[in-house]
Write a structure and sequence with these properties.
Keywords: Cell membrane, Membrane, Transmembrane, Transmembrane helix, Transport. This is Putative major facilitator superfamily transporter. The chain is mainly α and 418 residues long. The protein has one domain: Growth Hormone, Chain: A (Up-down Bundle), CATH 1.20.1250.20. The longest helix is centred in the first third of the chain and has 32 residues. 58% of the residues are buried. The mean pLDDT is 85.
C-alpha cells in the first residue's frame, strides 16, 4: 500500500482507476438501459450484451500489435496523455447516445472505448517494471488489479441508480479528471532505440504472437489468462438477462450482481499477493480456478431452483435480499469472483517479469491479442447459444467446463516454473 504514496505509481494507478470507472459506468448504463427499457425478449437481450461485449473486445484483437510497438518505442507517459485526451471525445459521443437515445451511437462509443483501452492496456502493466523495484512489481500489479475492480464496482453500482442524463454528466467529468491525472505520470521513455515499426495489422499481430508464444511459460500463462477472461466475458454477458428473466429482479439488482463480482475479484487480487508474499508463482492457480468451477455450479443450482413470489413483477433490491435463496446466491457469486482474482493476478505477474523490461509492453500486447480473440469467440458462442434457445442460466454449465481447462493450463505452468 505504500506505493500509493509514490509519484512513480500513484498517477498511473489513478489514471487507470478513473478510466476503468468511466468505461464501466457507461457500458453498464447502456446494457441496463437496453435490457430493461428497450428489449423485452431474453434471447435478444443476451444477444445485445454479447454484441456490445464483442465490439469492445474486437480492437484488442486487431490493434494490440500496434499498441505494443508504440508502448515499447515511445514514451509511455506521452501515450497516456494522448489516449486520455481521446477519452473525452469518446464520452461526448457515448453520452449523446444515452440521451437521444441511439443504440448505434452507443455501440459506436463502445467500439471507440475498446480502441482507447487497447492502446492504454499494455502501458498500465509495462510501465510498472520500469518505475518499480523488482520486489514491488507483484504488489503493484495486485494494486492495479484491485483498483481496477474497485473502480468497476463503483461504476457498476452507480449505473443502476442514476438516469442516462446523470450518467452522461459523470462520464464527461471523470474523463476530464483522467486527462489531468494522466499528465502527472512520470516520463517512461523507451529502453532501447528501434527504427522499424510495422503498421501492417495482420503481419504485426502474427509476428508479435509468434515472438512471444514460443516461450513455454509465457505460452501457458497467456493461454490460461485467455480462458479466464473468456469465462469472465461470458459471465458478464449472462448476468443482466439472468437477473431479469431468471431471478425476476430489476436493474438495481443487476447492478448489484455485477458489483459483487467486481469486488470479489479485487479481494482475490489482494489475497493472492498476501499468500505469495511477493513471489511470482502459479502454485495456487489450479486450485483457485477449480474452486471457481465449484462456485459456478452452486450459482447454477441456486438460480435453477429460484422461485419468484410475484409472477410478472420484478424484485427491487430490498425484496431481492430478503429472498430465502439470495444469501447463498450472493455467496456463490462472491466465491466465483474471489477465486477468479486469485487465479489471474500471478499469471499477469509472469508476463511482466519473465521477459526483459524493454519487451514487457509487447508481451502484454501479445497477451491481449490472444485474450481478446478468445473473448470474441466466447461472445460469439454466447450469442449463438442464445439464438439456439439455450438459456442464460444453462450457459453457466459451459463456463464450468472452461474452468477445468484453465486449471490444467495453470498446473502445467506451475510444473514448468515453480
Amino acid at each position: 500500500m505504500r506505493l500509493l504514496g509514490r509519484r512513480r505509481f500513484l498517477p498511473i494507478f489513478t489514471t487507470q482507476f478513473l478510466g476503468a470507472f468511466n468505461d464501466n459506468l457507461f457500458k453498464t448504463s447502456m446494457v441496463l438501459f437496453a435490457t430493461y427499457q428497450v428489449y423485452s425478449d431474453p434471447k435478444v437481450e443476451t444477444q445485445f450484451n454479447a454484441l456490445a461485449t464483442g465490439l469492445f473486445i474486437l480492437p484488442f484483437f486487431l490493434l494490440s500489435a500496434l499498441s505494443g510497438q508504440l508502448a515499447d518505442t515511445r514514451d509511455k507517459a506521452g501515450i497516456v496523455r494522448i489516449v486520455k485526451t481521446a477519452e473525452i471525445g469518446i464520452m461526448v459521443a457515448g453520452g449523446a447516445g444515452l440521451l437521444l437515445p441511439s443504440i448505434p451511437l452507443m455501440l459506436a462509443a463502445v467500439l471507440a472505448m475498446g480502441v482507447h483501452s487497447t492502446f492504454f492496456g499494455p502501458i498500465k502493466y509495462a510501465i510498472l517494471p520500469q518505475h518499480l523495484e523488482p520486489d514491488e512489481v507483484l504488489g503493484g500489479t495486485g494494486l492495479v488489479e484491485a483498483g481496477t475492480y474497485i473502480s468497476i464496482l463503483a461504476g457498476t453500482i452507480l449505473a443502476g441508480f442514476i438516469s442516462p442524463k446523470e450518467a452522461t454528466m459523470i462520464v464527461l467529468g471523470v474523463a476530464l479528471l483522467g486527462w489531468f491525472a494522466g499528465r502527472q505520470v512520470p516520463p517512461a521513455p523507451p529502453l532501447h532505440e528501434e527504427h522499424t515499426f510495422d503498421w501492417h495489422i495482420v503481419r504485426a499481430s502474427v509476428r508479435l504472437v509468434n515472438a512471444t508464444m514460443h516461450i513455454p511459460r509465457l505460452f501457458l500463462a497467456i493461454c490460461a489468462i485467455s480462458f479466464f477472461w473468456t469465462i469472465g466475458a461470458v459471465l458478464i454477458i449472462e448476468f443482466p438477462p439472468l437477473v431479469k428473466n431468471v431471478l425476476t429482479s430489476d436493474q438495481q439488482v443487476a447492478s448489484l450482481f455485477l458489483a459483487v463480482f467486481s469486488v470479489g475479484v479485487a479481494i482475490g487480487s489482494v489475497a493472492i499477493n498476501r499468500l505469495l508474499k511477493g513471489q511470482v508463482s502459479a502454485r495456487y492457480a489450479p486450485g483457485s480456478v477449480i474452486a471457481m468451477a465449484g462456485f459456478i455450479l452452486l450459482l447454477y443450482a441456486v438460480a435453477r431452483s429460484w422461485i419468484g413470489d410475484h409472477p410478472g413483477q420484478l424484485y427491487d433490491i430490498h425484496e431481492f435480499v430478503r429472498h430465502p435463496s439470495a444469501l447463498v446466491l450472493l455467496i456463490a457469486l462472491l466465491g466465483v469472483a474471489v477465486t477468479g482474482g486469485m487465479f489471474v493476478v500471478p499469471l499477469y505477474a509472469f508476463l511482466t517479469t519473465t521477459v526483459d523490461k524493454d519487451q514487457t509492453a509487447r508481451t502484454v500486447a501479445a497477451n491481449n491479442i490472444v485474450n481478446s480473440g478468445a473473448m470474441v469467440v466466447g461472445s460469439l458462442l454466447a450469442f449463438t447459444l442464445s439464438a439456439l434457445g439455450v438459456l442464460a442460466v444453462d450457459q453457466l454449465l459451459m463456463v464450468t467446463g472452461m474452468c477445468f481447462v484453465s486449471a490444467w493450463l495453470a498446473w502445467k505452468l506451475h510444473l514448468a516454473c515453480d
